[in-house]
């Protein structure tokens, strides 16, 4: 199948408003990922602003640990976003299958990408394994910048920070969201990578929200056996956002902790 300047290959995945395909630029032969977003569904859900955010930030800001966007185009039915192709897929496929050292390396690289965003006044707000792409040679990059900025709740239930929760029974706040929510998400990410499930996951939505706002996480043998993991979780999964590490502090700690082992 052909679409403008691209030959379209296999489907790589599905999202809320479209799909991602492997594609090849006809003239250069360059391999990319092509995200196809259906206009009608995106507009009906009021997400046109998030698409604009993703395009604007992804094409203007460049960092080694952020998935670059090369451009975009549209027709009557769809918006097409041209992105770097990640040959190793989503981090989700590695959840529960990595060593402690590998998990720490992932969180370090994610932290570096987030620190760059924070320096530019941008909060990601939707860090999770599905939004982190894997490359050869142990490289990880943060993608899906559609939720950055703004107010109200953006993100995935299991990764919501306590300040996004109003009350213990599941009401959601509409207060401005700041950088500590990304720090919290890094703690959740580390825990899930090692345990295979998020730390505050419960059978019901209300139970999960209550656990996020009021309960602690289960300190399993895998979690407590490495002092570095214990330290990171203690400093990232603090209920009060102002008491957490900053992303810079987390990155600096991880750089020292990992380098001391190598």
UniProtKB/TrEMBL annotation:
Q: Where does ATP bind?
A: 16, 35, 84-86, 130-131, 144
What protein am I looking at? Protein kinase domain-containing protein
What family does the entry list?
Belongs to the protein kinase superfamily.
Q: Where is this cross-link: Glycyl lysine isopeptide (Lys-Gly) (interchain with G-Cter in SUMO2)?
A: 128
Which SUPFAM superfamilies does the entry mention? Answer: Protein kinase-like (PK-like)
Give residue ranges for domain Protein kinase. Answer: 6-258
- Could you list this entry's UniProt keywords, alphabetically sorted: ATP-binding, Kinase, Nucleotide-binding, Serine/threonine-protein kinase, Transferase
